[in-house]
Write a structure and sequence with these properties.
363 residues, alpha+beta, Phosphoribosyl-aminoimidazole Synthetase, Chain A, domain 2, 60s Ribosomal Protein L30, Chain: A, 2 domains, 7-stranded mixed sheet, 5-stranded mixed sheet, 10 helices, 14 strands, 34% helix, 22% strand, globular
């Protein structure tokens, strides 16, 4: 969308706000497409119409990174699950094995929990090399040891040649949420500050370049990493943290749209503050992809009270996974349910939820 200049054209943004507010993802497709797995509008429509309608319950309706469950003893558990179908299975900075552990550990961390146990289920295509499977499992073992989590149960299925594109992995995890710790969109308030723990789009671009389909060369590494320690660093410095997410599928743009809708606020991002590596920005420019929609696998997005933002930033930049942390925006009361980007040219544009799937199978 063309940037809207404040001199005489700002009203165009406001005119479009009501249109965006009224948009609710609707499932009109007759078959599943790649877009339904991208984390954007199509994903939201599929989840709302098919899965929520069938399985509706209080825990599921939160639609967080994991479910928060209270035990009879009063303790609270975080429970998360995810599947991994990334292509190629090995890429600069990681592999499907690293993602399978980091992704679930991070989902639990965004619930405020330290992952304790994981399960791992494999769907393996007949003819898959045992050496490659051994290497993937070794990556998982390494990632689990680094994250301090045990893989305690699992399952293996083998399917016909051509039925699984090699190997798919599903992991589920459980962690305990400390007493008194709670995040949620309902806690977010106008005046709060939005932080990100590092550069955007690293994972998605690294996987895209690793496929070799494009005549592009750039030194881009996936950022796949466990975020549980960084999460604790953030909370120690900003105990009033309101909300946490890791911007994977759909990127920061889509996650901010989910926040704006759930909290009924405006999320206002500053383009000049977005940390994006030059090779990532260059690749996105060449391909016509907005880096706001490109996935990370080792970054967190946080909303904290304004008075705790500087302390949070100072603590995060000291951690190895937070050296490029930045304050990238703020929460406003209006326009409700809208994400705005204040551009480097002095204009403002609406950042809609991701439509389609520019980078399929990146996790």
């Amino acid at each position: 969308m063309t940037a809207v200049q404040p001199e005489g054209r700002q009203e165009l943004v406001l005119e479009r706000v009501e249109t965006f507010r009224r948009r609710r993802p609707r499932l009109t497709d007759k078959v599943v497409t790649l877009a339904h797995g991208a984390g954007g509008k199509s994903s939201a429509a599929l989840i709302d119409k098919v899965f929520l309608e069938a399985f509706r319950n209080d825990a599921l309706e939160q639609l967080g990174d994991g479910a928060l469950l209270e035990l009879p003893s009063g303790e609270r558990l975080a429970f998360a699950t995810d599947s991994y179908v990334v292509r190629p299975r090995r890429f600069p900075g990681g592999s499907i094995g690293h993602l399978a552990v980091h992704g679930t550990v991070n989902d639990l961390a965004m619930c405020g929990a330290q992952a304790t146990w994981l399960s791992a289920a494999f769907v393996i295509e007949e003819g898959f090399p045992i050496d490659e499977l051994t290497a993937i499992v070794a990556d998982m073992a390494e990632a689990a040891a680094t994250a301090g989590v045990q893989i305690v149960t699992g399952d293996t299925k083998v399917v016909d040649t051509g039925a699984a594109d090699g190997c798919y992995i599903t992991t589920a995890g459980i962690g305990i949420v400390p007493e008194g710790r709670r995040f949620g969109a309902d806690l977010v308030q106008p005046g709060d500050v939005v932080l990100v723990s590092g550069t955007l789009g690293d994972h998605g671009v690294a996987v895209l370049l690793a496929r070799g389909d494009l005549d592009l060369e750039a030194d881009v590494q996936s950022d796949t990493a466990p975020l549980h320690e960084l999460m604790e660093v953030l909370l120690a410095a900003a105990p009033g943290t309101r909300w946490l997410r890791d911007p994977t599928r759909g990127g920061v743009g889509t996650v901010c749209n989910e926040l704006a809708a759930d909290a009924e606020v405006a999320v206002v991002l500053q383009e000049s503050a977005l940390p994006i590596r030059r090779p990532v920005l260059g690749a996105c420019d060449l391909l016509g992809i907005d880096p706001l929609y490109v996935a990370n696998e080792g970054k967190l997005l946080a909303v904290v009270p304004a008075e705790q933002a500087e302390a949070a930033l100072k603590a995060m930049v000291v951690h190895p996974l937070g050296t490029d942390s930045a304050i990238i925006g703020r929460i406003a009361a209006e326009p409700e349910r809208i994400v705005l980007l204040e551009t480097s040219f002095g204009g403002t544009r609406i950042v809609d939820m991701l439509v389609g799937d520019p980078l399929p199978r990146i996790c």
